[in-house]
Design brief:
Blueprint (H helix, E strand, L loop, with lengths): L5 H22 L11 E10 L4 E11 L2 E6 L11 E4 L4 E4 L1 E6 L15 H6 L2 E9 L4 H12 L7 E8 L5 H14 L3 E4 L5 H14 L3 E3 L7 H7 L3 E3 L4 H4 L4 H6 L6 H17 L3 H14 L2 E3 L2 H9 L16 H13 L7 H20 L18 H12 L4 H7 L2 H7 L16 E4 L13 E6 L2 E4 H16 L1
Parallel strand pairs: 1-4, 1-5, 6-7, 7-8, 8-9, 9-10, 10-11, 11-12
Antiparallel strand pairs: 1-2, 2-3, 5-13, 13-14, 14-15
């Protein structure tokens, strides 16, 4: 839908705000929302994600949603009113950030995916980047932010939300950029089908308005051209596959001048040959040049991994299935029947194999990798799948400290708030995970969550379990 239909979209957004927040409130009725309190996490091993080290033992004092002190246990005086949490044998790390999620269903006009909020929090995901919405829906985002800050809903902080822009002409593209800016969008989202002239217009207008451009490098544009033009993040390794082939120019030349639908058809027809022509030398060279542009990559490996495994025999066997809202379950089942890869399909398997090699190459060259899941794509369960993404990043060559940075201090630096979040330090926001195991020794330990501190509100294991149970019961109605 064109952004010029602002009045109609604002009406839809108002409806979604009302019904969405009501749905959250109903789903969280039986999971009491804790109030901010003074909290002392005692004798805990602190995960320093910046240095990739463990600092222990420490007592961390949280007051009014901020880390007020972090000292040796025998030194720090704990206020009498503080809630004391035993951290002995446990590890404290920053809350996780999922840098690629979808909270809106713009095409189908279904209500927003606020049903996913409890799943994110229960999995220690305290911040998310919303990757595609419309200008009118920014009102919904602001309501979520306000409600979460007031402690009226249990939800991760929406750190940034992007409005999709394209335009039938360069002038229309520029107009959409201005409309997105006026609506309060944090960045502009680009899709693969955006034509090159419109893309250049978007980049120019965004630069003038000081708005970041993120998303898919368009199918007509090379990886390095898009990165050099100023696109700040690239998702799903779009156009990186082509850049890791000596035939990149050949692929792009075949796409030049095509209309959007035909352009995407050609790109799809080329994919297997693009993947089969992966060349390590070309990939090394492209990775070195990409690192110089400072563009970050959000590879969403979970998506490629899930597709490589094919359609599940029975998705309802997965215990996480019960957390999906009914309309989301229906969407997944429809995709499984109509357009999802079958087990054993060669193309998804090849895509997964090449994706791993590319991430390893990019990381080795110094390209910044950030963790994103693309939830709720089929088989990508909100919250749960970010932990899988961290595992896959480690399998692709990052060490556990690198993977943790990709979901903590890395997003904070990219989004411009690292002075106040993203690591554990005095004065920073208290979004924290208390773990039963050391994630620097084994990245899967991020899943052993003993407690979550969400903006200074303590949710212990029993609270998190109730939150999940409440979410499951809400979807069963």
């Amino acid at each position: 839908m064109r952004l010029t239909l602002a009045g109609t979209l604002l009406g839809l957004a108002a409806t979604f705000v009302s019904s969405g927040l009501l749905g959250i409130a109903q789903a969280q009725d039986s999971a009491e929302i804790p109030k901010r309190a003074s909290i002392a996490i005692e004798n805990v091993a602190v995960v320093d994600v910046v240095r990739g080290e463990i600092v222990s033992p420490r007592t961390v004092l949280i007051i009014d949603g901020r880390i007020a002190a972090m000292r040796e246990p025998d030194v720090l005086a704990i206020p009498l009113e503080a809630v004391r949490v035993d951290g002995r044998g446990r590890y404290l790390m920053p809350g996780l950030v999922d840098m690629h999620v979808h909270l809106f269903n713009d095409a189908s006009r279904r209500p927003p995916n606020d049903w996913a909020f409890p799943l994110f929090v229960a999995n220690g995901v305290t911040g998310i980047r919303e990757m595609r919405t419309e200008a009118a829906s920014m009102a919904t985002v602001e309501n979520w932010r306000t409600k979460a800050a007031r402690g009226e809903i249990i939800a991760p902080r929406v750190l940034a939300a992007g409005v999709a822009v394209s335009g039938e002409t360069a002038d229309a593209a520029r107009r959409q950029v201005r409309e997105a800016k006026a609506a309060g969008a944090d960045f502009l989202k680009i899709f693969s089908g955006v034509r090159e002239p419109q893309y250049r217009a978007i980049i120019d207008e965004a630069r003038a308005l000081r708005m970041p451009v993120c998303g898919h490098i368009p199918s007509e544009v090379s990886l390095l051209d898009g990165a050099s033009a100023g696109q700040r993040s690239n998702e799903h390794l779009i156009q990186v596959y082509e850049a890791c082939s000596e035939k990149e120019k050949h692929w792009l030349d075949a796409r030049k001048g095509l209309e959007r639908i035909e352009l995407e058809k050609v790109r799809e027809r080329q994919e297997q040959e693009v993947l089969e022509s992966f060349d390590q030398s070309a990939c090394d060279s492209s990775a070195v040049e990409l690192a110089r542009t400072k563009q970050v990559q959000v590879p969403t490996l979970t998506l490629a991994y899930s597709e490589s495994r094919g359609t599940p025999k029975d998705s309802r066997d997965d215990p996480r299935w019960r957390y999906l809202r009914a309309d989301e379950q229906a969407r997944w089942e429809r995709i499984f029947k109509e357009g999802y890869p079958a087990a054993g399909d060669k193309l998804p398997a090849l895509r997964w194999e090449v994706s791993q090699q590319i991430v390893k190459t990019l990381h080795r060259a110094g390209v910044r990798i950030l963790a994103g899941s693309d939830a709720p794509m089929p088989q990508v369960y909100p919250g749960f799948s970010l932990h899988k993404e961290l595992e896959l990043l480690v399998e692709a060559g990052l060490n556990p400290a690198d993977a943790l940075r990709a979901a903590t201090i890395g997003p904070a630096e990219f989004l411009g708030f690292s002075e106040g979040a993203g690591s554990i330090a005095v004065g920073k926001r208290a979004d924290l995970l208390l773990l039963d195991g050391n994630p620097l020794a084994d990245i899967t330990q991020t899943q052993r969550i003993r407690a979550v501190v969400l903006d200074g509100r303590l949710l212990q294991r029993a609270d998190l379990d109730r939150l999940l149970e409440t979410a499951r019961n809400a979807q069963a109605k």
